Amino acid sequence: MTGNNSKPLAEEILETLYAARDVCIRYEKKYNMLSEQFHELYSQGLLDDDGLNLDFVDWAGSYKTVLDCQREYNGRVREFTIAEKLAHLKAHAMVA
After folding, report:
1. Interatomic CA distance for residues 28 and 91, integer angstroms
2. Chain-centre distance of CA 40, in angstroms?
3. 3-state helix, strand, coil in the chain (%, to 5)
4. Angular region, 32: left φ>0, alpha ψ -120 to 50, beta rest
């Protein structure tokens, strides 16, 4: 946790993840392609856009953010004991 009035770091990571995922989903619908496949083409330089397609730049950055957040979140969650994970789920279940 980051402080008394702050959200736990894991929640901040998830908020960033969800925002980036929303951007990716928008582009997936627009271009009819999953982000994973897009990123494979983009990272290999196969899209031939010369960096001029701002959608592609934004999509690639958002997908990288998704991957980074997943990696960071998974690292944080591994630090928690099973009891801490269960307590966290129960606390959020009561709020919902």
Report:
1. 34
2. 17
3. 75, 0, 25
4. left
Q: What is the mean pLDDT of the chain?
A: 84
Q: Are 13 and 72 in contact (CB under 8 A)?
A: yes
Domain locations in the chain as residue ranges: 9-95
- Write the CA distances from 69 to 5, 18, 32, 51, 63, integer angstroms: 22, 9, 24, 24, 10
pTM score above 0.85? no
Please give the Cα distance from 10 to 85 (Å, whole number): 12
Query: Residue 7 corresponds to which tokens in the numbers above?
Result: 């959200």
DSSP H or E run through 19 = helix 9-31
Residue type, 6: S
State the Cα–Cα distance between residues 51 and 54, nearest whole angstrom. Answer: 7
* Residue 15: pLDDT over 70: yes
- The mean pLDDT of 60-66, rounded to a whole number, is 97
